[in-house]
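Saturday, quiet lab. Running sequence design on the structure tokens for the scaffold JK sent over.
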């Protein structure tokens, strides 16, 4: 039976191989789609790892700072530091925007961190080149994906920043590379208005009768002064002391500070269930569609090959070949087609994965499951051809 299937494949090897290559490219796309989903999950994990936090303190009744906007006063971290179990607490801001260098622009997440070494929450743990941010203004650490180099000057809003360090795999949940800048600069870039907007707002404030009424001295001056400062951050990153219970410390912050707090497990749930859930369902739909298309292609090809040798199958039946042998021959051809397609698809996915703009994570477990699914699809797709072959009348070998 094996020799019979092999000889039939060799008889039309060109059509068989080219069909396997075409099927392989489709399988490669399927594996890449699964890798994109795995990459999205890994990006979310990397985002949490790079924050260096055990707890995320955000605005009450929000899912911040990644899934929703959050705004806190930047002095709240001092009170959090006094709570038992808290080792470090640091303000942080996040802003996704275009970052430019000369004529080049790159979509990036600008992260405002407290200047210092890698021990501060929010700072990248390791650098591949340069140093960490040590000054309070106009220094930046960028991810390698941005394409920036140490010493290069990049523009964020109206200011220029010198890249003093480079890091790797510091990305947002959407896969955008991160650019770290001093907290004060990030606050200005994210929250402060431009000069024209400030002038217009001050004119409206000065024209407000409620602020210019007699007997209320200093109110107008206080309002105008408040428009030139920015006390807001997106979150407070908290690192706990060794042995501290995250749930207990989070409960203390909620009780005494009246703020929303998320543990690592809760933040993982938010990122996966809120941010990438829709994308995951969309990728799942594509995988189902690609599986159906692959099955249809295999079924059509095997059925066409079977119809092309109806006379040969009739001769086999005439000389006494059992139906099981004929069915096995067709099944082996379908499985051989799937094997060629999987090898081509896995090779193609491995080569083109680094070219994707988003991170594609190809796991060996997914490849193993993909191989089993491909074999099952090919086996099921061969049933139509087997049914057609078993219905062939041996008399066709004589009457043809």
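Result came back. Writing it out in full:
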């Amino acid at each position: 039976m094996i020799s019979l299937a092999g000889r039939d494949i060799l008889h039309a090897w060109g059509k068989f191989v080219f069909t396997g290559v075409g099927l392989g490219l489709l399988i490669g796309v399927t594996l890449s789609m699964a890798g994109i989903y795995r990459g999205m999950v890994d990006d979310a994990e990397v985002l949490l790892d790079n924050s260096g936090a055990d707890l995320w303190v955000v605005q009450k009744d929000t899912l911040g700072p990644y899934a929703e906007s959050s705004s806190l006063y930047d002095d709240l971290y001092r009170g959090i530091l006094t709570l038992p179990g808290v080792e470090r607490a640091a303000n942080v801001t996040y802003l996704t925007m275009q970052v430019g260098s000369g004529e080049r622009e790159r979509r990036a997440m600008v992260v405002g961190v407290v200047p210092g070494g890698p021990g501060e929450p929010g700072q990248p743990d390791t650098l591949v080149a340069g140093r960490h941010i040590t000054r309070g203004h106009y220094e930046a650490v960028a991810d390698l994906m941005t394409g920036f180099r140490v010493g290069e000057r990049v523009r964020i809003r109206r200011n220029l920043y010198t890249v003093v360090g480079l890091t790797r795999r510091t990305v947002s949940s959407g896969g955008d590379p991160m650019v770290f800048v001093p907290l004060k600069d990030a606050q200005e870039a994210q929250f402060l208005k431009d000069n024209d907007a400030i002038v217009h707002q001050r004119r409206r404030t000065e024209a407000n009768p409620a602020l210019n009424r007699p007997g209320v001295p200093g109110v107008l001056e206080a309002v105008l002064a408040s428009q030139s400062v920015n006390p807001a951050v997106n979150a407070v990153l908290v690192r706990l002391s060794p042995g501290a219970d995250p749930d207990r410390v989070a409960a203390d912050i909620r009780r005494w500070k009246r703020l929303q707090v998320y543990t690592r497990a809760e933040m993982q749930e938010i990122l996966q269930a809120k941010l990438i859930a829709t994308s995951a369902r969309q990728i799942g739909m594509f995988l189902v569609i690609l599986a159906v298309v692959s099955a249809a292609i295999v079924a059509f090809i095997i059925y066409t090959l079977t119809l092309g040798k109806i006379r040969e199958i009739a001769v086999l039946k005439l000389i006494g070949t059992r139906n099981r042998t004929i069915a096995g021959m067709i099944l082996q051809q379908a499985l051989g087609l799937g094997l060629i397609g999987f090898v081509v698809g896995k090779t193609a996915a491995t080569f083109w994965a680094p070219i994707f703009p988003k991170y594609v994570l190809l796991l060996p477990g997914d490849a193993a499951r993909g191989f089993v699914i491909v074999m099952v699809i090919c086996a099921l797709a061969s049933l139509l051809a087997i049914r057609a072959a078993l219905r062939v009348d041996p008399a066709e070998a004589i009457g043809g």
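Notes for JK: The CA atoms of residues 5 and 198 lie 80 Å apart. The chain has a mean pLDDT of 83. Ask whether to fix the surface positions before the next round.
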